[in-house]
Amino acid sequence: MSTEESRHVYRLHSTLELPLEDLRTHIDEATFPDGVTDVEITRRNNTLILKAVAEDESVSKYTPTAQLKASITENRVYEEDPDERRNSFRWDEDEEEEIESELVEFAAFKGDRETVLQNSLLQYQMFLVLCGIAEAAEKGTLTAISERDGDLEATRIVEGEPRPADIEVVEGPRDHNSSQGGVNWRDNKFISD
Q1: How far apart are CA 85 and CA 70, in angstroms?
Q2: pLDDT tens-place string over residues 131-145
Q3: CA 148 to the chain's CA centroid
Q4: Residues 6+ apart with CB under 8 A from 73
Q5: Cβ within 8 Å of residue 76, ≥6 positions away
Q6: Residues with Cβ within 8 Å of residue 64, at least 6 apart in sequence
Q7: Under 8 Å CB-to-CB from 140, ≥6 apart: which residues?
Q8: N or C terminus of the chain with fewer C-beta within 10 Å?
Q9: What are the Cα distances from residue 100, in Å, to 59, 76, 82, 97, 134?
Q10: 183 with 44: CB under 8 angstroms?
Q11: Does residue 70 contact residue 166 with C-beta atoms inside 8 Å?
């Protein structure tokens, strides 16, 4: 069994957000998982694509490798929290002075697996890159169920901190009523004893 076949990402949900500059710095300084030599960052309008560059040179340049997709938004970042300033009593100031702020571009990795993590070649490796981004992000959550070497793993990273996570198997709606969908042979009036 090849390495690629024994590693999968089944479920993923992300609400991660971090400044674009911080993301670029993180990718420049990151150590990538086996199989990935680099991550190319491409911007198309307000979409950011982080694409895996395969270590295996036999992979055709036309074969799409896994990629992470983020939307780019602009947020105003204040030097001082405006709510704190408004709530503090400043008897000596007659007029409110302007709070220093700037517009900052953020990369937002938001959505489920198909939205955030695309293409199957090197998908698990790019999931690991996303986990690294999640640990660098101060805002948002990453939850996932993946499989490595036959074992299911739960991942949960909240506001940059890895947290304990469990996989829970629950009875789905189809399983619940499965006994009522067939013929009840015991109470069938067409069958005599």
Answers
A1: 33
A2: 999 999 989 999 999
A3: 18
A4: 46, 105, 106, 108
A5: 101, 102, 103, 104
A6: 119, 121
A7: 14, 15, 16, 17, 18, 109, 110, 134, 159
A8: C
A9: 50, 10, 10, 9, 28
A10: no
A11: no
